Amino acid sequence: MVAVWGQQYQTGDGAMIGYGGDPIAAYRGAGDYAGLVLNGTPIASLPIQTTRLGLSLNLKTAKAMGITIPVGIVARAGRGD
User: Fold this and answer.
1) What range does the domain containing 35 cover?
2) Does the predicted model carry a pTM greater than 0.85?
3) How far apart are CA 40 and CA 77, in angstroms?
4) How far apart (Å, rounded) are the C-alpha atoms in residues 4 and 16?
């Protein structure tokens, strides 16, 4: 079992905690940037985009490892398996 994984969607594969950015949103943003550049927008005028991080938990894995996750962390998680 893996305790912590660097992508939020890996909890479905057994990781206890996943924390990271959304790769689909990153690829979508890259496509938007490419479209702007190809349409003539100067690169210097492109805004800086931030990455939205997400937290997901797999409570079954935590229970199997004998770990109790605090309620405050469970409440902050965007996804729980």
Assistant:
1) 4-80
2) no
3) 40
4) 6
Closest CA relative to residue 19, chosen from 52, 45, 41? 52
pLDDT score of 81: 44
In the predicted structure, residue 21 carries a pLDDT above the cut 90:
no
3-state DSSP percent of the chain in helix, strand and coil, to 5: 45, 15, 35
The pLDDT, as a whole number, for residue 39 is 96
Contacts of 12 (CB under 8 A, 6+ apart): 58, 81
Phi and psi angles of residue 51, each rounded to the nearest 5 degrees, phi first = -100, 130
Q: What CA–CA distance (Å, rounded) separates 21 from 30?
A: 14
Residues 35-73 pLDDT 10s: 999 999 999 999 888 777 888 888 888 898 899 989 998
* Number of domains the chain contains: 1
Question: What would you report as the CA-atom Rg of the chain, rounded to the nearest whole angstrom?
Answer: 17
